[in-house]
Amino acid sequence: MKFSLSTADITPQKPIFMAGFGDRTHKSEGIHDPVYAKMVLLQANKTLLIITLDVVGSDRSFIVGIKNTLEEKFALRHDEVLINFSHTHHSVALTGTDESLRLGVYSIEDGTVCNPSGKNFSEDESYYHFICETLVHMVEDCYSHLEEGNLLLGRGTSKFAVSRRKLTVNGVKWAPFPGVDIDKDLFVLKLVDQMNNLKGILYNYGCHPTSMSSDNYMISNDFPGKTSSYLEEIYPGVTALFLQGCAGELKPLKSADVDGFKSCSLAEMEEAGIDLANDIISILEGKPFTTIQCNFQTILVDPLLYTEQTGISYYETIINDPKISDVRKRGAHRTIKQIQDGSAKDRAPLYISIWYLDEETRLIAIEGEVSTEYSMLLKRMFPGGKTIVLGYTNGNYYYVPTRKMIAEGGYEVDCNYCFGRFRGSFVPEIEDIIVGQITKADLLLQMQQRKGSGRV
Prior knowledge:
Elements: E1 2-9, E2 36-43, E3 47-53, E4 57-58, H1 60-74, E5 81-85, E6 93-94, H2 122-144, E7 147-157, E8 161-163, E9 165-168, E10 171-174, E11 185-193, E12 198-205, H3 222-234, E13 239-244, E14 250-252, E15 256-257, E16 260-261, H4 266-286, E17 290-291, E18 297-301, E19 304-306, H5 312-319, H6 326-341, E20 347-349, E21 352-356, E22 362-366, E23 369-370, H7 372-381, E24 387-390, E25 399-400, H8 403-408, H9 411-414, H10 430-453
Parallel strand pairs: 3-5, 4-6, 12-13, 22-24, 23-25
Antiparallel strand pairs: 1-2, 1-7, 2-3, 7-11, 7-17, 8-14, 9-10, 11-12, 15-16, 18-21, 19-20, 21-22
Helix pairs in contact: 1-2, 3-4, 5-6
C-alpha cells in the first residue's frame, strides 16, 4: 500500500458571515485558529482520496463541481472520493457555480438572510474556485509524494459528547441528556511508513463543533482544530485529520451547563480539544492496532428521502407565534413562498458511500447531519468492531433523524424548512430507505470482494 498526505490553509482573509448559527448579526472579527483542507491519498488495488474541510458543510453545487474536477484531472471517480466536513459553526458553508444545485439559504456576504433570487453569489463562487484550485494542487502534491507504508486501525471510546435531546413529559427539550445511549466509539486510523514511523492520524468521533456559540465572531474550527494541532505538536511531522461522525444531536460535554448549554470561552474550547486529543493519544499509546490488508472496494448510492406534504397554514402559525425565533420565521416565510411558486421540494437526495478497506474493515459515509442512532444501528447490523460510520460527508444541508426521533419530535425532526427548499419534515420510512440502501450496497461490495479473492 502507498499513501501520502497534504494540508492547505483555506482561512478566509477578510471578514465574512460565518455559517452555522442563524442569529449572528454581522461578519467575523478576526481569526482564532486557521481552517484547513487536509487530505490523504491511499493507493492499493485502486486509489482512494479522503478530503476533510474545516467548514460547516456544502450543497450539491460544491460537491458535484469538486468531484467532477477531480475525475477530469485525475480519473478519480465520485465513489472513490470522500469529502468530510468538520461542521464547525465558526467558518463558512460552501457552494459551487451550478445554480441548479445551489440551496441559496446562505452566502458569505449576506449570511442566512440570503434569498436565492436576486442575490449576488460572486464571493461564494470566488471562494469555490480558490478551494477547487487548492484541492487540485494538493492532489498533485499527493501523487508526487506517495510512499510505501501501512494503514492500521485502533478503537477506543470517549465520553467527550452528550446528547442535546432531553426527553420530557412535554416533549423533546434542547438540554443535556447524559442518560440516553450515544455512540461513544473513537476510531483511530494511523498511517506509518516502511520504518514504522507515524505519518498520519485519522480520528473519527461524532460531536458538533459547537463548544463556542453564536457570540463567537472569530473564525475557528472549534475543538477539532485544537485536537488536531495538539496531536501534531505531540507527534512532530504527523498530519492529523478529523473525520466527523454521526453527530446530529451531540454536543461537547464541556459545554453542558446544568439544564442547558453555555458558550465556552476560547480557553475552555481549547481545553475540550486537548481532552479529546488525550483520548486519542491513549489509544495510540495503549491500544492494540490491526493492520488493514488494503484491498479497496467502493460504491456510492443516492436514494431519495421523502418529506411530509406540509401546508402553508403550518408555517403561518410559526410566523405568528411570538415565542419562535426570527431565524425560524425567516425559514417559514421562505417556505410559504416556495410552496406558492412550486419550488418547494417533497424529497431530498442522500449520498451514501461505502468503502471496504479490506474484507473486515468497512467505512460507511452518509450525507447530512446524521443522528448518532444511525451509527449505533449500523454497527449492530455489521458487528465485529470494524465498521466506521461518518456523517457530514459529500454534502450537508439537513438533519437525518431515525424513525424513533421522528415520533418524538424536536429540533432535528422539524427544522427541514430552515435549510433550503424542503416542504416538511421527513416521513418515518426514511429509516427503511437508508438501511435498505446500505444493506443492498454492502451485499454488492461483498460479492466484489469474493470475486477479487477468487472465492466466487
